[in-house]
Automatic annotation (TrEMBL):
Protein name, as recorded: Cystatin domain-containing protein
Cited SMART domains: CY (SM00043)
Gene Ontology MF annotations: cysteine-type endopeptidase inhibitor activity
Source superkingdom: Eukaryota
Pfam families recorded: SQAPI (PF16845)
Alphabetical list of InterPro entries matching this protein: Cystatin_dom, Cystatin_sf, Prot_inh_cystat_CS
Keywords on record: Protease inhibitor, Thiol protease inhibitor
Domain Cystatin intervals: 36-133
Amino acid sequence: MALKFNRNLGGTLFSAVAIASFFLYASAALGGGKGGLLGGWSRITDTKDSKVVEIGKFAVDQYNEESKSEYKSKLVFKRVVKGETQVVAGTNYRLVISATDGARRSRRGNKYLAEVWDKPWENFRNLTSFKKL
């Protein structure tokens, strides 16, 4: 017994695969799934995660180190308010950080946007941007 190939079935099958592929690609491009689009920014859901806090403290410490001045007081890290990560050759972190001015006794911190590039397998971490919001 031989199977006969139905041309209409082949065309229908091709159409179904093409449509399914399109929806799968569109879902990934719009951030569907767990990781989102490769190379795109993904929201950090746990800003209290030890790695995220470590990166936030590093950003404030590095900013203090780079902006040494006898007239400038140091910032004191309070917390990470929100953030995103981007997987590239390592991980980029874009964090909104709450920090207080060390010279002022204010409980309310100012917000800063910090970007840090981290490559832990090379023991490399770099503050690429830090600005007051």
